[in-house]
Fold these 4 entries.
Entry 1:
Amino acid sequence: MSNPIPENPDYIEYIESHKDEYEKDLFELLSIPSISSQTIHEADVARTAQWICDRLTSMNLDAQIVETTGHPAVFAQTKNPNPDLPTILFYGHYDVQPVDPLNLWKTPPFEPVINDGFIYARGASDDKGQMFTHILGPEAWYKTTGSMPVNVKYILEGDEESGGDAMDTFVRNNADLLACDCVVISDSQMFAPGRPAICYGLRGLAYVEVIYKGPNKDLHSGTFGGAITNPANALCKAIAGVHDDKYNVTFPGFYADVENIQLAEQERLAGLGIDETEFLASAGVTDSVGESGYTITERHWARPTFDVNGIISGYTGEGSKTVLPAVASAKMSCRLVPYQDPEKIVESIRQYFQDACPPGITMEFIVHSYTPAVIVDVNNPFVKAAAKTLEKAFGRSPEFTRDGGSIPIVSAFTEALNSPVLLLGWGQITDNIHSPNERFCLADFHRGIKASAILLKQLAGIEPKSAGKE
Ligand SMILES: [Zn+2]
């Protein structure tokens, strides 16, 4: 690994000489049990918001606590922003997951400690530790120059871990307040230790539930079997038809808007050197089937899918009971790729299961949620600036990755603000997020602070969206 080159001696020196204070301050933040899903911690959540608000105020930002439909969020922005500079919006969350089972923690979750180069505490990686780097980096600019090279905004929420959509609603209702040229989020992982990554693609999601209803009660399968349509048989047959023998999804129009994976992208993904055998082994399997003509990495990062998430019908208790069930239901979801319209896909799923519904069965269809996929053009100037930043801060150019999962808030930013989102995670998959003994690599905490400071400088030269408008 080459030695990272300091970009501006002043703020880099400032950052390097304040490591101890940064750790002390992070420990203070980590010691507040801001568990958003437990009402007993409501005051702790509010106290954390205030702690952050005070810190942002001390950086000469216009900071305030804002109401959402859930817990309070913290919003801050540059006072008197310069219209010639781009505006960077930092998003993060200060709430944390519950800590149970407590007995599996080696040290108390809200008494942070450093051990073997890792900070152990609930929220260390997800997301207080990562989020705090984007407060400290810009703060170093303010402390050394009295200003920042770009306009900044912050929206830091306290509901991410409680499953609500308070921030999604807030973003969509406050697009003007949050208007920016680019969004920066560090709430994810690097590709591997020492290998920073820029995640440029997330899959979307369409989550539905299909309920096939037959007779008005469970029936004797001897007396009625063969005469009455069995909803479980019917639902299984319909589900079995969703994939053809090449493992393509058969919902009408499912692939209509899907772009083929370009050669450059195929090469980029192959170049990551992901060991697919090891990947399968991590799930406890030795082989898998899927859409033909694609690698396993392409299949779960860049291709749309259909999966049954849960299926219930009839008798599932001990021993046997010969019934013909009255009802069969399945929860199912599709992961979506860029340009697929989730509403169209949901309608297509509904139509498919309606058409597959045989005589004697009626269907109930529930839409649980949907969100579109996100893709960021890797040639966009913000991505290029981020890549340079990571190279300087981590001493290695980043990997460009996609992720098979979905982050609804990223879709909200993309749709409501029409700005690219930079997903720059400083964590590792071994950080035990949501589990006992959550941790965050101490060196990556400090590299993340440097990266955040360097990022401001790298982004400063990019022309803002509003330029030329008047
Ligand atoms: Zn998180």
Note: The chain is about 35% helix and 20% strand.
Entry 2:
Amino acid sequence: MENKDKSNMGRDVIFRIKRFDGEKSYWSDFVVPAQKGMTVLEGLYYIKGTYDGSLSFRASCRMGICGSCAMKINDKPRLACETQILQLNSSKIKIEPLDNFRVLKDLITDFEGFFAKHEAVKPYLIRKDDNYAEPVELIQKPEELHAYYDFTLCIKCGACFSVCPAAATRDDYLGPAAMAAAYRFNIDTRDEGRDERMFMVCSDVGVWRCHFAAECSEVCPKNIEPAKAIQKLRFQAAVHMIKKALKRW
Ligand code: SF4
Ligand code: FES
């Protein structure tokens, strides 16, 4: 019987890629013979191996885990290794580096600031009784794990930051991923470091700068909903600031 669904049949697709050589931006077009199941990342490797070895992009795991291949594909940030060419249903695919990041070369952006913001919120368990000579077992109920589990799935791909309107206006804004990480540790029942994290969270580059556009949750490839985390973090921040004010009073 004839297969009437042509979306998965192999065909040539044009990759229109935004390039940057360190001085100027320009566009390059390449024809990729796309087959069923072929990803955008495989298309980029095809171009690099066939037409232009200087094409630069970042990738590692090829399975949606490392977060390094996020880029703008047909105007939306996506993981290139998880985006199948034919499923985009388009004869021309536009590929650009993520917005809100400095471009280093072609599709490679500078993630140093993004990781520094993550580090600034202390994304690890903080214990007052920290004593590695005598480790203690910290027991947690399944529902306590469930409360923060989704936020542990973040792969630091930067897609959320790239669509954030607050990040677009201020470089030092912590952004959705860092604040989702702060919330993840703040609600972990084993953690005692909430007050330490709140210094950054309540600062003028923290939660109050979020406009709740919620674009971050729309594009997150892991469905983490950083916008939800930020709203909950805002409540924690308000409580923290009230407590501090009462102490001073
Ligand atoms: S929250 Fe989602 S979009 Fe943002 S860095 Fe983590 S995985 Fe990527
Ligand atoms: S290459 Fe690791 S997430 Fe795409």
Note: The mean pLDDT is 94.
Entry 3:
Amino acid sequence: MSSNNNKTSSPEPFLMNSGNGTYSYSRNSRFQREALVIIKMMIDEAIAEKLDIQSLSSISKSLRIADLGCSVGPNTFLAMQTLIEAIENKYEAECLKHGYRLPEFQVFFNDHAANDFNTLFSSLPPGKSYFVAGVPGSFHGRLFPESFLHIVYSSFALQWLSQVPEKVLDKDSPAWNKGRIFYTSASDEVANAYAAQFAEDMDNFLKFRAVEMASGGMIFLMVPGVADDCHPSQSGGGWLYDALGSSLMDLANKGLISEAQVDSFNLPVYFASLKEIISSVERNGCFSIVRAKLTDAILGNYDDPVNIQAYALHIRAVVEGSIVKHFGSEIIDDLFDRFFQKLTQVANLDPLSYKGGQIFVALKRK
Ligand SMILES: C[S@@+](CC[C@H](N)C(=O)[O-])C[C@H]1O[C@@H](n2cnc3c(N)ncnc32)[C@H](O)[C@@H]1O
């Protein structure tokens, strides 16, 4: 058997900006970091209540943790420290009763092969209490041997689809997404094509993790999401990508890029609801749900102009590489200037009309 079941024709991945310069992901990912602080208590509780250290201790002296879609840091280091401290607390609380020894920890940092692993590995925290390894490849395929992992963590990564849904690029399809790069202000056909791709990807993610995880192991997922049954146009975060699409169309109207280039560029990102994620867990059947919650929006104070600058920089850190590949580098500064101006206008809208936030899900392998 091949050790990796990734699709052979996987499209080129969208990569976060590398390094640690002005537009890098490492310097423009504070929303994700703030979100981790919000969910920390839920991680602590889930581990304290549901991690079965008796059965894990009987199968292994070390605990293997994977961060799927870790990017370049530093958020992943904070996340790994949070998990390890919660597990150590659990061991310390129980070792008096049962005589367990603290396990050694090994962290597997996973992302696409072209992710900037150099920045990641050269900025590992000096006092870290775990061994490290890098695992390149898509989490939509197999990454680890059978029953190998004890803890899987993934934050702000599962909203990235394995591909742009084919129909939205097909001129002959009712789901053709002409003049837009995202689904949140598009037709229902476009939104449905994105939803179907997410369901397929989420099913694959759980299918492969079910094979790779030891019984009793736990998964912690955090994704930007939406309230159940809310219309895509109300997605928190959708307004950012809609504003980016509209900025690209402005450049097309000025003749700086072609409209056909915009039509053939769509972002493979989907903001799911808790209902959609739970449906996938139920279809899979290998995990029990420990905790599932949509928490408050992470985008903070919509009236704060400093934050608008931060959103613009964050989106630039996330999509710049893919935009340069598709449209060329000449338009980048003009595009993001226009994008910033649009965000300033959109931010004056009522933030309560957006029904987004972050979804936290804790699962346990049966
Ligand atoms: C927004 S960043 C989040 C990084 C980090 N987890 C955090 O919370 O700051 C999303 C990361 O997921 C990675 N990613 C997206 N799809 C992936 C896939 N199929 N396999 C592995 N990594 C993926 C991207 O390359 C990117 O580094």
Note: The chain is about 40% helix and 15% strand.
Entry 4:
Amino acid sequence: MRARKRIIITSIVCIALAALAYFAWLFPFYEFETNDYTTSLEKLRSVDYLNTLVPLLIIIALSAVGIALCVWLRKLMAKTDKRYSRFADVRTSRTTGNAPKQKPAVFMIVRWIVMIVFSFVMIWGGLIFGLRMSSISIPILSCPWNTEQMTESSCYYLSHLNELFELPIKSILIFMGSTIGFTILLGRAICGFLCPMGLVQDIMDKIRQKTKIEGIAMNEKMYGALTPVKWCMVLIFVGLCFAGGNFCNFCPAVAVSPILAGISTSLYVSGFLMILVLMGGFFKRRLFCTVCPLGYLMGLLHKISLFRIKKDCQACTECGACYEACPMGIKMIYTERGKADVTDANCIMCGECVRCCPENNALSVTFAGAKIYTSSREKIMSGYKRGGNHYVRK
Ligand code: SF4
Ligand code: SF4
Ligand code: SF4
């Protein structure tokens, strides 16, 4: 009970810190103006809003068709090629969704609540508070807050550095300082807790689990095949930053958050990419995150981030459950035999490795040195019951 209390308190402190960091970043130099809409309902009830949603509905429908086609193709292959069928059985048994059911950890509940609340605020906050920002807006994936001036959101400036440097020096310093400070404070926990694109992908994974459709478990070779895609994305992002192009045309988030907030956007390739993100996220949790350029850039500061993954190598029995559960395919958490700090640049602090680790205290998520989530044999065993002489899944 004491441990539970400690987790709740630490989680609340984390949320408060995240919120503080977030708003400390926002308020010193942002100018608010009143929206044309006094309440969110006024806009959300309008026919205009429904019209704006049409492209998103088409994207969702096309993704559903794509997923159905993939499932059908896989069934066809399994029927016609027995080797594929056996291969598919082995591979799909390793997906995160197949971990034994267990009592939900407070860390996980808090993570979902924070993700949903932040996504809600990022998408509809501007409408609900009847505000828009006339200066640089909320960080990453937040164009909806700038209801009329999308080009001035801060993720716009992150991808258009040439324009950022045209701002007054004070704004540049605050922008750069707060961006780096925020990344140090939270690191890629931003991906695990705050990013709406992460939430969208986690929801797709949950839908797959509920529909009992097998996912795809990726091995190192498959992750390796994605590496060139990641580098292309990073090159496009960084290249356009300096060359003056518009990364927003490639950003899949443009096909979701502004549209949900009732802003018509030109989708260019972002709509197509969003279909791939939804389909990919359905079969493989957080697939887009493995190639996301923003995630990669945030990962560059992972060595000084306050969130860490710690491992007690003495307690580890080398079962590999953590590696199989990790949506980012981080092998080090399983293979490391000496170091206590196993935080990787790709780690999004989702806590899946800790959830699936069967050894007490072998893996932990820590914040500023304090353990906020620790692996527990008791939790794992809560997913099993006695079946004769052995244990079976509940
Ligand atoms: S990797 Fe990119 S898409 Fe994924 S959660 Fe992080 S910022 Fe969002
Ligand atoms: S190492 Fe653990 S916390 Fe990090 S991404 Fe993998 S499963 Fe999530
Ligand atoms: S799940 Fe835990 S016990 Fe198994 S390899 Fe990973 S750290 Fe070690």
Note: The chain has two domains: 2-299, 306-393.
